[in-house]
Design a protein that fits this description.
mainly alpha
Length: 465
């Protein structure tokens, strides 16, 4: 989960003319075709994208680590006990650590491909979508005409993912409010709370300048940290024996586990913006770099809360672990604080899809009146979509699993290895093409999870309906 997935620095937006690149390749001499990356070696000595970045306020390694943790820890961590319920205690631990390792590796892939393409195109930095476009524009000749289509596909998945997160935020706030109000004897339905928070959510998402959302984001981060500490306080008390829960769940539940787990780990959209804005970006990668350090902490937290949350509450665990906490004042305060933190984070989550959709819509508007009111109308429509989806699917665990399986798996597991294959094709894929086979294995894993996870999540939603 990420609160800041908008690139801080993406470099100049200079799209590549695919036809020109292809024509240059076709007229190249035979000696050049045998060594397609011949000029890259000289470019690497002449152009260093890191030194070309002009950053007004670069972030330190510690700042980047904090942003990385904040970008990956959100509502997904509170759903991990529910994920363990669909996998079993033992398989949940193994699966979560494995998923964390694969997702982290895919993040490294994206950073490596971004740096390679920055050198080739002499650009200081690139966004996720720009990396995809340039990789295909300079990749195998048959794929070059589709570069723009793949860029648009990434944007579509980013929009779906972020709007899915916004939908989860609506449901999370409403369900926790419903549970808290029960404590005070106020019994209203979750639909009533969804209607009550629509206007405040709309007002928050109408804020156009990220500068005004930064203090709100800081408050939300402090609230989230406090809520997690108190949650661990409750779930670590009076733990039953591990034999009281299933070590392995049934096979038909595993796709639901995959969807929830990949939803929690899908923070790949924040990786390039963070690396692009670092004072020392060379410290981002490596075995002990910022990325590995942050993701080890994230994986450990996810595994811990999933393990102890499922062990504590068993098959009765809810889509958010906060809903299982006891009915005392401290637990109710956790629900209230976490609901407030997620509510305050809605504006930042909504910023990304709006930043992708509005420029496209803006090009279709011609009159001054349409341009004046178009952005407000677009915001209202997108917010209404997330609200309607939350009303139609008022089950937190089901919608988390669906968003994770459908869109998060594509962004986190399927596209990065494909980008690596296309970027380093054909002669830079390792001895005997081991990088190719490794990437294909990740793609197969991602596509399998995408297909079965989406099918199982939709089936679960329809069954509940």
């Amino acid at each position: 989960m990420s609160d800041e997935k908008q690139p801080l620095l993406t470099g100049p937006n200079t799209p590549i003319d695919n036809t020109e690149v292809q024509s240059v390749e076709l007229v190249a001499s035979s000696s050049d075709r045998t060594s397609p990356f011949k000029d890259e070696k000289s470019k690497k000595t002449e152009y260093n994208p890191i030194t070309e970045r002009l950053l007004e306020h670069p972030t330190s390694n510690f700042d980047t680590l904090i942003h990385l943790l904040k970008g990956n820890i959100g509502t997904g961590i509170l759903a991990m006990p529910d994920a363990f319920k669909n996998a079993g205690l033992f398989l949940g631990v193994i699966g979560t650590l494995l998923m964390g390792a694969i997702c982290t590796h895919c993040m490294h892939i994206l950073v490596a491909c971004s740096r390679e393409l920055c050198v080739r195109n002499q650009r200081p930095a690139m966004s996720f979508a720009e990396v995809v476009e340039d990789a295909f524009a300079m990749g195998p000749i048959p794929l070059r005409p589709y570069a723009k289509k793949f860029k648009n596909m990434i944007d579509i998945f980013l929009v779906i993912t972020q709007l899915g997160f916004c939908c989860v935020y609506f449901l999370f706030v409403a369900t926790n409010l419903e549970d808290t109000m029960h404590f005070f004897g106020i019994n209203l339905s979750v639909y009533t709370y969804l209607a009550m928070i629509f206007i405040p959510m709309l007002a928050l998402a109408m804020v156009k300048n990220l500068k005004y959302l930064t203090p709100v984001s800081l408050i939300a981060a402090i609230m989230t940290a406090w809520g997690l500490v108190v949650t661990f306080y409750y779930i670590l008390q009076d733990l039953p024996h591990t034999s009281s829960v299933k070590a392995f769940a049934s096979w038909h539940q595993l796709p639901l586990y995959f969807g929830t787990a990949i939803y929690a780990f899908e923070g790949i959209g924040v990786i390039l913006p963070l690396e692009n804005n670092m004072k020392t970006p060379e410290a981002f990668g490596g075995w002990t770099g910022v990325l590995n350090t942050g993701m080890v902490i994230v994986a450990a937290l996810y595994t811990a809360i999933g393990f102890f949350g499922y062990l504590k509450y068993g098959d009765h665990v809810s889509g958010s672990i906060t809903l299982n906490l006891p009915n005392d004042m401290l637990a109710q305060s956790v629900r209230g604080v976490m609901a407030a933190a997620i509510f305050l984070s809605y504006g930042l989550q909504f910023y990304v899809p709006m930043n992708i959709v509005w420029p496209y819509i803006k090009t279709k508007l011609s009159s001054e009146m349409a341009l004046e009111y178009g952005e407000a109308v677009t915001r209202f429509v997108l917010i209404s979509i997330t609200f309607i989806a939350a009303v139609l699917i008022p089950n937190l665990s089901s919608i988390i699993s669906l968003v994770g399986a459908f869109s998060s798996s594509a962004l986190a597991l399927i596209f990065p290895p494909i980008i690596e294959i296309v970027t380093f094709w054909p002669d830079r894929l390792g001895t005997k093409g081991w990088i190719l086979w490794k990437d294909l294995a990740i793609v197969v894993f991602g596509v399998t999870g995408f297909a079965f996870g989406t099918y199982a999540s939709l089936g679960n939603i329809l069954k509940e309906s």
